[in-house]
């Protein structure tokens, strides 16, 4: 697109755009538009962890929960030492609802190219 000639020190014009309808407008169209945009863009607030049903579901940040009487998970410190860590964010003792409370409990899972194997790295990429 061709821009008009501008000189040094000349202020540019700011175009004012009409704001889209919002919730404050109280119109149903504004509410519906916001819901559609939120679902389309994938920015809706989904900050919960999900269980993996198959090995194909494992990728990105994961928490490895161990089947023990006290819910624990595998963690890794900065030196690369692997240890078990007690889970604190859990609902009614159900391991399926476990969420990490420490960055050391989060592992990054990635697939190894050309194989079905999965590589787990700690928070320091080791």
Describe the structure.
- The protein has one helix spanning 28-41; strands at residues 60-62, 65-66, 72-76, 82-86, 107-111, 118-121.
- The protein is of the alpha+beta class.
- The strands form two sheets. A three-stranded antiparallel β-sheet has the order 1-5-6, with no helix packed on it.
- A hairpin with a 5-residue loop joins β2 and β3.
Structural class: alpha+beta
Main beta sheet, described? 3 strands, antiparallel
Shape: elongated
Rg computed from alpha carbons, rounded to a whole number of angstroms = 24 Å
Mean pLDDT, to the nearest integer, reads: 77
Instruction: Quote the beta fraction.
Output: 15-25%
Order of strands across the main sheet: 1-5-6
Order of helices and strands: HEEEEEE
Number of helices: 1
Helix content: 10-25%
Could you list the spans in which at least 5 consecutive residues all have pLDDT below 50?
none
In whole angstroms, the N-to-C terminal distance is 48 Å
The overall strand count is 6
Give the structure's gist in a few sentences.
The protein has 126 residues and is α+β, with helices and mostly antiparallel strands. The chain has 1 helix and 6 strands, in the order αββββββ. A hairpin with a 6-residue loop joins strand 5 and strand 6.
